């Protein structure tokens, strides 16, 4: 049964859900009303990545690039190298890989090159992926995931390199994550690439001064990259992670832009982290989709999670999950904390590519 879609929105979600469910999809009218119709380069790059980690997938794109037919193959994983381009960051591809890799025939070892931290914040950065996303995935029984940042790559030229190693599992554990706890400490990394390391100290001092008004345990590391590890373009940024008493993580990251002061970056990043904490929940906005997807793919048992404000990206994911897997979430608002408790019954997804464990 072929699933039909229209438009370019949530392209990555549809490709990932199609690969996991085994349902072919047709996407029509991709940016037909824009000056440059059809697939963007990063979407075509995602399809090439799917072709590398699967066996037997079929991809058909029409001449104008406005219609795509995708028939998924069997996930084989293996050792791959992929150039992510200069339009979207490495995080765009990492999100797809980490959802698919545990269900492959072989363990995955992926070397991705491109932009590691982007100014637009559209995709999760490599720092937050390492410090927040991977610890969250441990709750589902995914251990021994290794992630290394070999080189940073700032826009526009990139030049960064990361290596993701992910083992395979038979199935995932159900999740019960209701108690968000209280903030006990904040950790951060202020990094610079091909710039004066004094910039990262200015960012750190301003941010720490703001956060110390609310929590006493604040430590921000400074990380200076030079030579081959610094990529092709200069840049600096700050990533912050707040840990709660129950082991939950809330994070935010921002990169410095041209003609902006490092102090402004530190001050704004601290305030945005406080805004994320204010929204409540056991996960931050950038990690909602990972948790909900793994809850659906978990064993046939009830999973629960407390989430703050649902992002538009997460809402569209819930719709795609219903379309591909037939799983719906029970959403109960909690007026007292202004959060919501999402409950679902896992579909019992099993790794069919690997016959024996």
From TrEMBL:
It is found in: Nucleus, Nucleolus. Residues 4-331 form the RNA 3'-terminal phosphate cyclase domain. GO terms for biological process: endonucleolytic cleavage of tricistronic rRNA transcript (SSU-rRNA, 5.8S rRNA, LSU-rRNA). CDD domains: RNA_Cyclase_Class_I. InterPro entries: RNA3'-term_phos_cycl_insert, RNA3'_phos_cyclase_dom, RNA3'_phos_cyclase_dom_sf, RNA3'_term_phos_cyc, RNA3'_term_phos_cyc_type_2, RNA3'_term_phos_cycl-like_CS, RNA3'P_cycl/enolpyr_Trfase_a/b, RPTC_insert. Keywords: Nucleus, Ribosome biogenesis. This is RNA 3'-terminal phosphate cyclase domain-containing protein. Its main location: nucleus. Belongs to the RNA 3'-terminal cyclase family. Type 2 subfamily. PANTHER family: RNA 3' TERMINAL PHOSPHATE CYCLASE, RNA 3'-TERMINAL PHOSPHATE CYCLASE-LIKE PROTEIN. One of its GO terms (cellular component) is nucleolus. It holds the Pfam family RTC. It comes from the Eukaryota. Residues 179-277 form the RNA 3'-terminal phosphate cyclase insert domain. The keyword Nucleus applies. GO terms for molecular function: RNA endonuclease activity.
